[in-house]
Amino acid sequence: MTPCPDMKKESNLMITPAEFPVPLIILPETDSTNNYLTQLCDEQQSAVREFTTIIAERQTAGKGQRGNSWESEDCRNITFSFVLYPTFIEARRQFILSQIVSLSIKEELDEWTEGISIKWPNDIYWNEKKICGILIENDLSGHHIGRSISGIGVNINQEIFRSNAPNPVSLKQITGQEYDRYLILANIMRRLKEYYILLQTDTSGEAVNHITERYARSLFRREGFHRYADADGEFLARLLRVEPDGRFILEDQAGRERGYLFKEVQYILFP
């Protein structure tokens, strides 16, 4: 493919320029940045530094939640993956990683527009439309997380979506402006590093509480009753809380609490 106009670095080369906060590999094309990074970690192991980030200008088989694919126009969005080695986090507490990843993206997008929220567990929405998808793959080492690879697609400058995805939107569609994708990516990774170091150095539990509170304030449809669907059908409920293990707790109109793990309940979205 023809190099993108804003590809400022030689492709397929690990670099740490002064303006970029993490080791970066830019690929002109790959099937999936998660696949590429997983293979790289498996082959080179300790040589792949924490926070190493892969960005692809063209991704031919991007992976989403529930086995879905991720549509992204060449050179217009941010499709990237990064690796962490969070051995200090217990497996039962792994949802905290999902929280800091989603918060880092949500809070960066807040700098450019209003109406951004986190749709549980970690999709990023603008109003009722999806602007970012996140897929986190954790490898356990005993009772802790040995390696975590997050794959992320953020819609930045794409103007037309051609797939049958129900509600995609890009930052350019929202504001009408063109954005520097690498600036936004660098800012996301800076925010992530700050959250991660906060967790890593936390001895009192205050950091976890701080992150949990920020996540709760950022949730999609966090107020009022809304439509959901589970194995028994549709119902109206309001959000009560998200548990430390990621369980989604709702209260229906009869006052009953309903708890769900990922994929056990769905939002009913407006067309």
How does this structure look, described?
There is one protein chain. The protein is built from 5 helices and 12 strands. Strand 4 (116-119) and strand 5 (123-126) form a beta hairpin. The model is unreliable at 8-16 (pLDDT under 50). The protein is of the alpha+beta class and 271 residues long. It has 2 domains: 24-217, Bira Bifunctional Protein, Domain 2 (BirA Bifunctional Protein, domain 2, 2-Layer Sandwich); 225-267, SH3 type barrels (Roll). The chain has a 7-stranded mixed sheet with strand order 1-2-3-7-6-5-4, with helices on both faces. A 5-stranded antiparallel sheet has the order 11-10-9-8-12, with no helix packed on it. It has helices spanning 33-44, 95-109, 171-175, 181-200, 206-217; strands at residues 24-27, 53-56, 78-84, 116-119, 123-126, 129-141, 144-154, 225-230, 233-242, 248-252, 257-260, 266-267.
- How many strand segments? 12
The appropriate CATH architecture of the largest domain is 2-Layer Sandwich
- Report the average pLDDT across residues: 90
Q: What series of H and E elements makes up the topology?
A: EHEEHEEEEHHHEEEEE
The CATH homologous superfamily of the largest domain is named Bira Bifunctional Protein, Domain 2
Instruction: Write down the overall geometry.
Output: globular
Radius of gyration of CA atoms, rounded to a whole number:
19 Å
Based on helices, strands and strand pairing, what is the structural class? alpha+beta
Biggest beta sheet summary: 7 strands, mixed
Number of continuous helical runs: 5
Low-confidence segments, given as residue ranges, are 8-16
Helical amount: 10-25%
The domain count comes to: 2
